[in-house]
Amino acid sequence: MRTPAQVSLKSPKVLYQFFEVRVDREESQWPEMHKRKRQWVTYAQAAAALATRPELLDALNRSSLKRS
């Protein structure tokens, strides 16, 4: 969780839902491509990117992704 210094009364309330999926193929175009960026990273890279977001890092750590 975030520390009190990182949260204020004006902070939006957010509910995250995570779903693991298996990717069989990667399309060059997809419906949300103009709204979302796709980036494939290793577990270590994802963990580093989420270092300041403990609530998201917790979800990554609970996943079945290979840690190697």
UniProtKB/TrEMBL annotation:
Gene3D superfamilies, sorted: Nucleoside Triphosphate Pyrophosphohydrolase
UniProt name for this protein: Nudix hydrolase domain-containing protein
Species of provenance: Blastomyces silverae
Taxonomy of the source species: Eukaryota, Fungi, Dikarya, Ascomycota, Pezizomycotina
